[in-house]
Amino acid sequence: MVECTENDYAKLADTVFEHFRRLNALEFKGFNDPLTTTDLNRIRMRAWGLGAIDDVDRPNASSASDDAILLSAQEIAEMPSQRTVTIVCITRPTKILDTLKHEFHFEPTDERGIYCNHVREIPVWVIHPTELKLKPKNYPLLPLARGAKLEQFIELCMQQGLVEYLQLTLDIGLVTDPDVIWRKILGVYGMELTIHEETWPYIDEFFRSVREAMRKVPTFQEALEKSKKSGEQSGVRQTLLLILRHKFEEIPEGIVQVIEATDDRKQLNQWLEQTLDADSLEEIEFEFDREVDEDGNEH
After folding, report:
1. Which of 7, 60, 224, 291 has its CA 20 to 30 A from that of 253?
2. How far apart are CA 100 and CA 73, in angstroms?
């Protein structure tokens, strides 16, 4: 529950939560926990119990006429008209918003990605972060976006030096959409954009801790296995070269040629795994055709 004071309303005026009232039920539904009709009914029922007042705190109706009973400021604040329900959904609840629209009466608002049911005493708002526009008032929820919108927000954070939002986006994205995070960060050096100078230290830190970071991602090994089966050798080669160049700066041309000439998916993925753990190029088992010069030295 989020409880707002008069001072809070001014702070919320330019945010995605500008519709908040005195008492607000705030719910988050994750990728593996989509909003169902049953969930929606439970959430609405809980909202009716927000700020419930015990009978001992109420005026004694038997000792005064109805006209003489005055509600306290607290009781007025806890009336249904002073409450809202806001549900942030990683997965769009299409059944509730579209299929059963006639039943739940959700309508799009002027803000894309935000829907509201205004026919109830306690209005219910549904926010789908992936549909939100890339503007400051939506930044707090955009780290929860997925796919192309998440990529766009990461790029915006890097361009504008929004390090705090970038940190939040990477932390959340490694759980909700790790493939997008991994691909976008690795693509930094190939992007045709200007990275804000405040962003570079954070990107460098990400690469320095890439081994630890990626080991925390459950889908990393799955992604490697998927690349083996799908035949995306070029993508693995590009990823391998990006990591090598960042970790070890100068990469011998011979190594680059070996990688670019390798079509063996198993070998490419083996090098990729070794690179994540290696502290030097010598620890990676690259194979070369050795040339012997006139003095008998191998090159």
Report:
1. 224
2. 38
202: Cβ contacts below 8 Å, ≥ 6 apart: 163, 166, 167
| Residue 143, both tokens | 């780290």
Phi and psi at 181, nearest 5°, equal -60, -50
How far apart CA 176 and CA 171 sit, in angstroms, is 9
Q: Which residues contact 179 (CB under 8 A, 6 or more apart)?
A: 219, 223
Side-chain half-sphere of 289: how many Cα atoms within 13 Å?
3
Q: In this structure, what token pair is assigned to residue 21?
A: 């009232």
How far is the CA of 152 from the CAs of 66, 127, 162, in angstroms?
A: 59, 18, 13
Residue pLDDT, tens place only, 156-208? 888 888 888 888 887 776 666 666 776 666 665 555 456 666 776 766 666 56
Q: Between β-strands 2-3 and 114-117, what pairing exists: parallel, antiparallel or unpaired?
A: unpaired
Q: How far is CA 265 from CA 102, 154, 234, 271, 298, in A?
A: 52, 30, 10, 10, 28
Cα–Cα–Cα angle for 103, 78, 110, nearest 5°?
45
Amino acid 123 reads P
pLDDT value of residue 8: 92
Distance CA 168, CA 173 (A): 8
Q: Return the structure tokens found at 131.
A: 């549909």
Q: Hey, which residues does 114 pair with through a beta bridge?
A: 127
Global model pTM greater than 0.70: no
